[in-house]
Amino acid sequence: MKFLAILFISFFVISTNLAKERPNVVIIYGDDVGYGDVGVYGSRLIPTPNIDRLASQGLRLTDGHCSAATCTPSRFSMLTGIHGFRRNVRVLAPNAPMTIKPYMYTLPQLFKDAGYRTAIVGKWHLGIGDGVTAVDWNADVKPGPLEVGFDYSFLLPSTNDRVPCVYLENHRVVNLDPSDPLFVGSKPVGVVATEYPDGKKNPESMTYYKSSHGHNTSVINGIGRIGRQFGGKSALWNDETMADTFVEQATEYISNQKKNKPFFLFFSSQDIHVPRAPHPRFRGKSKLTYRGDAMVQLDWATGEILDALEANGLSENTLVVFSSDNGPVYDDGYEDGTTVLTSTKEVDRGHDASGPYRGGKYQIYEGGTRVPFIVKWPGRIEVGTSNAMVNQIDFIASFASLLNIELKDTQAPDSRNVLPALLGQSSSSYSLMLEEAKRIVALRDGHWKYIPTPANTGGQLYNLDLDPGEQTNVVEQNAERAKQMNMQLEELVATKKGIRSATK
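Above: the chain's sequence. Below: its structure in token form.
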């Protein structure tokens, strides 16, 4: 008995020490959240006390980036460590197949290899199915997140402005009634299923708010969507309670975890992506109508997750990251109260969602990829601010370093180890970084930023130290530097081995 007691104590000590070295990891991912949408990054009109609380307990990075200025390639890059342009990854249609292939090494797979439980709750928008066999939404819906490293998933399969407007838990549509089967795109002839209004033919059916452009096909919950949906009425989500649903799923997942078994949770919020439909209890909490109120809702969700970690005794050994998939956008298909109607105008009622930076979603300027980026790990990350240049594409290599896992050259080839910068142990990381917007790829070299032009007319060159807003193109005054950076850019884009090997 004495021997067994000693053995038990030894095992407990070893397990506890292992847990301390292998923190739980929670990524809280906003959608279309700009650098200037958060209080600690300069927002005056949108209150974000919970995100600000996170920053007050961790490291606030001022040069933190997603890899692309649109969601699908940005999410793809973070989860695979491969730049989206290398796989021609673009914003996906409602019934698009998986962009992440089973043979690709992924961030959740890395954590699984290290003995973690893995889960995603929220927006996916990386495709479903193999592209060979049509997805049967009334049976097992796969391949999906479970086939690329996640143990558990609760999703909106595409995004909230696209069909199907249902939740997908693991491989099954939630609350689907077999008597009202679900179809995306078209339905078989002779099959009876719920018909939804066509917003093009019946614009009066869009009662929540009108479409400004596109987003007017299947009208569900009074909101026009991209794509056609038939059936699945019992499974429809409620736009105004979506944040509550995701928070409930995430906090329940957290409460079910054990202290001696680490976990990775990717909380992928739909906020503040269109259609913005914050719960009525958040209406009027900002001075910026639906968009601002949706940001307040995201802040609340962040607070709920932080509180759940604390309530379950998991906060001290959990590394929390807050960031966004791309920069801000205002009117993105709906007349929801924003006063900015084009991407070239950036200020809505005195609020500039990109902060001091130019542009936002879809644009190659800094506002497209420079996003809020906060990292907290009590006892390991000192509270403060860092101007180190970091990118979400580097999560795989960085966490691999933390977990003592050696990546093969073929695994996450564009991901580089910036762990010291993420932990606040270094004020610098690397000098070269790629930024992507639509089909344009730009190069950062320290404080210099080079943007090529299709006509090869010399491109655009900005000194971000002197001109963070990218207002003055200095390519003519620095022609040789621009030439060299253009050559570097072409080499990095063309390389087959990825940036990690190319920049060793």
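The chain has two domains: 22-176+238-422, 439-502.
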